[in-house]
């Protein structure tokens, strides 16, 4: 897979291409309807670029696998990596941003402007309009990691027509609010982006071996972290001490319990059963009985719980430019997107030294149900 630095550069590059295409295709709308002038568009271009570059600086070691160990926020839900990114921008990176000579003399961007955009906070004010380029169903982050992961893993599932998507992106009115979307001629490219995400998840990100290593990494971090969770964003110095290299060093010292040993030796858990991607009633019946039948052989269970596309107000907007339905969601045009259901697939795992006995137990039950 890619490293986070090259991905961050790629997201900044892609967000810049998207922003510049929007200006080419919609400058008259942006100036006449939204009140932007040349200086405002120039300032927001750099705001988008910096937010794209810094969007992932708050990731925990080895990215998403251990985010389950983020502590609860004061309001209840767990903290997110975006909140850590925002805290880092407001803290260690503040002077580098605000004291940079070109920024200070020209744009006067504040660290809080970038952090607020990353969080999606109302404090981002008019800049919040551009957040869909960083965090949306058609964002630069998604576009970059799909193509980059497809390249690095040697598969074709994550590929889509990036150039066509960029060339057809524009801004227009949807109901009473301005929105970023695509022209009618680009909706197939947007559809391909959604499908690329679906295929990469099912074939790569939720691959049985990758999931096994995610389980081991998460449980290793639970063993290594004081109290079993990461420091809060307000405890930034402690959080920043937990990087990939520290974890690798602890693993080489034999730390991390059983899961740390399995990571170091590559003796990962083995898959013994999986349901269909969209569970049927018989899947749920077998799964329930298997949990009881396997007993101590079952050591880990991982649900996909993944929705590929949200059919709500974030549905990608398509501007056809003519006819009674000149502004419609992507799902209006694409039956594929409209009917792309949520995956509720579940994977069951055993220890590698018990895989033959565990698989025999699975066959005992499943053969009896056929």
What would you note in describing this structure?
- By secondary structure, the protein is α+β, with helices and mostly antiparallel strands.
- It has 2 domains: 4-57 and 93-206 and 307-338, Orthogonal Bundle (Hypothetical protein af1432); 269-306 and 342-370.
- Helix content is 52%, strand content 9%.
- It is built from 17 helices and 7 strands.
- A 4-stranded mixed beta sheet has the order 1-2-5-6. The chain has a 3-stranded antiparallel beta sheet with strand order 3-7-4.
- A hairpin with a 7-residue loop joins strand 5 (317-319) and strand 6.
- Helix 1 (4-32) packs antiparallel against helix 2 (38-54), helix 3 (81-90) runs antiparallel to helix 6 (111-119) and helix 10 (208-224) packs across helix 13 (257-265).
- It is globular.
- The mean pLDDT is 93.
Outline:
This protein is an alpha+beta fold. It has two domains: 4-57 and 93-206 and 307-338, Hypothetical protein af1432 (Orthogonal Bundle); 269-306 and 342-370.
Number of helices: 17
How helix-rich are the residues, as a percent range?
Answer: 40-55%
CATH-assigned homologous superfamily of the largest domain: Hypothetical protein af1432
The main β sheet shows up as: 4 strands, mixed
Strand order of the largest sheet: 1-2-5-6
> How big a fraction of the residues is strand?
5-15%
What order do the SSEs take from the amino end to the carboxyl end, as H and E? HHHHHHHHEEHHHHHEHEEEHHEH
Say how many strands there are.
Answer: 7
- Which regions are unreliable across 5 or more consecutive residues at pLDDT < 50? none
Query: What number of domains?
Result: 2
Radius of gyration: 23 Å
CATH class of the largest domain: Mainly Alpha
Q: What do the pLDDT scores average to?
A: 93
Q: How far apart are the first and last residues' alpha carbons, in Å?
A: 40 Å
Question: Which structural class fits the helix and strand makeup?
Answer: alpha+beta
What is the 3D shape? globular
In the CATH scheme, what's the topology name of the largest domain? Hypothetical protein af1432
CATH architectural grouping of the largest domain:
Orthogonal Bundle
Characterize the quaternary organization of these chains. single chain
């Amino acid at each position: 897979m890619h490293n986070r630095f090259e991905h961050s550069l790629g997201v900044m590059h892609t967000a810049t291409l998207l922003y510049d295409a929007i200006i080419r295709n919609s400058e008259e709308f942006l100036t006449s309807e939204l009140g932007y002038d040349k200086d405002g568009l120039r300032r927001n271009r750099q705001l988008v670029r910096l937010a794209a570059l810094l969007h992932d600086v708050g990731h925990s070691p080895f990215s998403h696998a251990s985010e389950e160990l983020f502590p609860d926020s004061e309001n209840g839900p767990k903290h997110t990596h975006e909140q850590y990114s925002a805290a880092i921008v407001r803290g260690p990176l503040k002077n580098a941003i605000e004291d940079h000579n070109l920024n200070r003399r020209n744009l006067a961007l504040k660290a809080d402007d970038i952090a607020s955009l990353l969080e999606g906070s109302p404090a981002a004010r008019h800049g919040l309009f551009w957040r869909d380029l960083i965090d949306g169903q058609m964002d630069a982050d998604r576009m970059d990691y799909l193509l980059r992961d497809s390249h690095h893993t040697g598969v074709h599932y994550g590929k889509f027509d990036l150039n066509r998507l960029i060339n057809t992106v524009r801004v227009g009115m949807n109901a009473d609010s301005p929105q970023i979307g695509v022209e009618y001629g680009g909706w197939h490219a947007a559809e391909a982006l959604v499908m690329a995400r679906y295929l990469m998840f099912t074939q790569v990100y939720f691959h049985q071996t990758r999931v096994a290593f995610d389980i081991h990494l998460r449980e290793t971090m639970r063993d290594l972290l004081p109290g079993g969770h990461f420091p809060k964003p307000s405890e930034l110095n402690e959080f920043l001490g937990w990087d990939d290299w520290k974890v690798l060093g602890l693993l080489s010292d034999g730390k991390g319990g059983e899961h740390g040993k399995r990571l170091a030796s590559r003796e990962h858990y083995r898959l013994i059963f999986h349901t269909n991607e969209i569970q049927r009633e018989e899947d749920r019946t077998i799964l329930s009985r298997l949990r009881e039948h396997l007993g101590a052989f079952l050591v880990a269970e991982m649900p996909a719980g993944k929705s590929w596309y949200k059919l709500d107000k974030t549905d990608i907007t398509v501007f056809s430019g003519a006819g009674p339905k000149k502004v419609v969601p992507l799902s209006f045009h694409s039956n594929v997107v409209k009917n792309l259901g949520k995956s509720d697939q579940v994977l069951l795992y055993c220890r590698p030294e018990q895989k033959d006995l565990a698989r025999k137990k699975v066959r005992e039950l499943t053969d009896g149900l056929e």
